[in-house]
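This part of the workshop introduces the protein records we will be handling. A record pairs a protein's sequence with a compact description of its fold. Backbone structure tokens are a discrete shorthand for how the chain folds in space. The question running through the whole workshop is how a given chain folds. The record below serves as our worked example for the rest of this section.
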Amino acid sequence: MDMRAAADDFKVCLCKQKTKKELIDLIREKEIRTLDDLREIGDVGNKCGGCGEDLLQLLEIAYE
């Protein structure tokens, strides 16, 4: 999925029901820079792992 084109309310992590906007806000607020930190701090991408690629995109988008 192209996260740049996804709506703010798009559910990135289905297991934890986290939206694109929630995650971008969290990344910026907590100054998260790595996928491991996002998984730990945001409690996302650590159950089924299906959103890993999307989370990596969000880490890039958040700091553009």
User: Anything to note?
Assistant: The radius of gyration is 10 Å. The chain has one domain: 11-61. The chain has a mean pLDDT of 96.
